[in-house]
């Protein structure tokens, strides 16, 4: 009577279940299994789980990682392309992989956004350029009329002072307009001239000689740190503009008795140019913003310029595929470092051929 039962007898596990025959007689069917065989099966099962489960999880994790990487590969390509986008390459867009509909939809949406941003940027750039061009003529007329008034000997002294002040401010406005036009040209594709090999050390030596008088008048020593030549790929006129702006700033904010020096070096595929001074320095809160357009840092001498000189320096460096950075401490001077791509052998050869042609023309004349 009763139901099935499991019992252990000596080294056996017995399973017994009651049944009835066709004529109603009760019988019991029993089945046994040796305990050591069960223990061996249990050990085999535990061992299989201990080894097989981690291996299975490892394969699952590896397969999942591979699948995720394959799925995210187009996103990584888009991220790298987005990091490389600059206003020097306004037509570049994010690549579309053509593998995943939703990822491609994201890429198309971002590309449409980039087109709208590029369109807005072009409108703003054209507006700045057009406004600057329109302002140049009336400012020139105003300046001419004011100079005529200031030259009159019969002008009352109480009017001469205000007229001279207006004349100075008009000249400053003219400089700002010229700077805006220069920046608009740099921002345009047409403003990016074909680069050639430029010896930065020779360019720095010539520029220092030309600007030395400003430093001497102020009692400031100026010089070029000795070293080898460095050939940069660029437009010599634009690079000279960089040097002039940096040297002018250094001289302007270095007190009498100070020193301004230029150092040229090269490393790998880049060449560098540093303008160092022992001037008043730049406060830490102003340093991150000195290359922004129209940013004017207040100093003990008033506001520092119109805020376009260093912005032009940064724009020229960006147009050459380089960059500029500044280090400074108040009272300890400043260092402005320009890095530019090194000239290739082809550019150097073309530049040498151009010099030879010029020399031949001079000899023929």
In N-to-C order, the SSE pattern is EEEHHHEHEEHEEEEHEEH
Beta-sheet strand percentage? 15-25%
Number of helices: 7
Shape: elongated
| Uncertain regions spanning at least 5 consecutive residues | 300-305
Mean of all residue-level pLDDT scores:
79
**Strand order, sheet with most strands:** 5-7-8-12-11
What structural class do the secondary elements suggest?
alpha+beta
Verbal overview:
The protein is α+β, with helices and mostly antiparallel strands. It is built from seven helices and twelve strands. The strands form four sheets. A five-stranded mixed β-sheet has the order 5-7-8-12-11, with helices on one face. Strands 1-2-3 form a three-stranded antiparallel β-sheet. Helix 2 packs antiparallel against helix 3 and helix 3 runs parallel beside helix 6. It is elongated and about 150 Å long. About 2% of the residues have low confidence.
Break the fold down into its secondary structure elements and pairings:
Blueprint (H helix, E strand, L loop, with lengths): L4 E5 L2 E9 L5 E9 H50 L16 H51 L5 H31 L8 E4 H18 L3 E4 L6 E4 L1 H17 L6 E9 L2 E8 L20 E2 L2 E2 L5 H11 L3 E7 L3 E9 L3 H20 L1
Parallel strand pairs: 5-7
Antiparallel strand pairs: 1-2, 2-3, 4-6, 7-8, 8-12, 9-10, 11-12
Helix pairs in contact: 2-3, 3-6, 4-5, 5-6
């Amino acid at each position: 009577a009763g139901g099935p039962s499991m019992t252990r007898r000596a080294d056996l596990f017995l399973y017994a279940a009651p049944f009835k025959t066709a004529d109603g007689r009760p019988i019991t069917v029993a089945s046994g299994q040796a305990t050591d065989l069960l223990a061996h099966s249990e050990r085999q099962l535990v061992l299989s789980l201990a080894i097989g489960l981690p291996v299975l999880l490892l394969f699952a994790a590896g397969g999942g990682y591979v699948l995720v990487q394959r799925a995210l590969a187009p996103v990584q390509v888009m991220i790298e392309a987005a990091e490389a986008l600059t206003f020097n390459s306004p037509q570049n867009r994010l690549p579309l992989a053509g593998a995943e509909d939703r990822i491609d939809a994201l890429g198309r949406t971002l590309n449409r956004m980039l087109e709208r941003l590029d369109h807005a940027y072009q409108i703003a750039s054209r507006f700045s350029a057009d406004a600057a061009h329109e302002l140049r003529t009336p400012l020139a007329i105003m300046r001419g009329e004011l100079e005529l008034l200031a030259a009159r000997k019969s002008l009352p002294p109480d009017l001469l002072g205000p007229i001279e002040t207006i004349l100075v401010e008009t000249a400053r406005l003219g400089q700002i307009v010229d700077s805006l036009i220069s920046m608009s040209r740099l921002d345009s594709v047409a403003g990016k001239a074909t680069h050639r090999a430029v010896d930065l050390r020779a360019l720095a030596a010539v520029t220092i000689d030309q600007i030395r008088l400003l430093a001497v008048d102020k009692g400031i020593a100026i010089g070029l740190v000795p070293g080898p030549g460095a050939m940069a790929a660029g437009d010599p006129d634009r690079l000279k503009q960089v040097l002039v702006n940096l040297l002018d700033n250094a001289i302007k904010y270095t007190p009498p008795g100070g020193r301004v020096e230029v150092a040229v070096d090269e490393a790998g595929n880049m060449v560098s140019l540093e303008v160092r001074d022992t001037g008043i320095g730049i406060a830490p809160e102003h340093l991150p913003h000195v290359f922004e357009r129209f940013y004017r840092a207040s100093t003990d001498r008033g506001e520092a310029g119109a805020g376009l000189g260093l912005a032009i320096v940064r724009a020229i460096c960006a147009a050459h595929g380089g960059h500029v950075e500044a280090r400074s401490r108040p009272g300890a001077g400043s260092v402005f470092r320009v890095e530019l791509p090194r000239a290739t052998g082809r550019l150097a050869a073309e530049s040498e051929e151009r010099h030879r042609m010029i020399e031949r023309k001079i000899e023929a004349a």
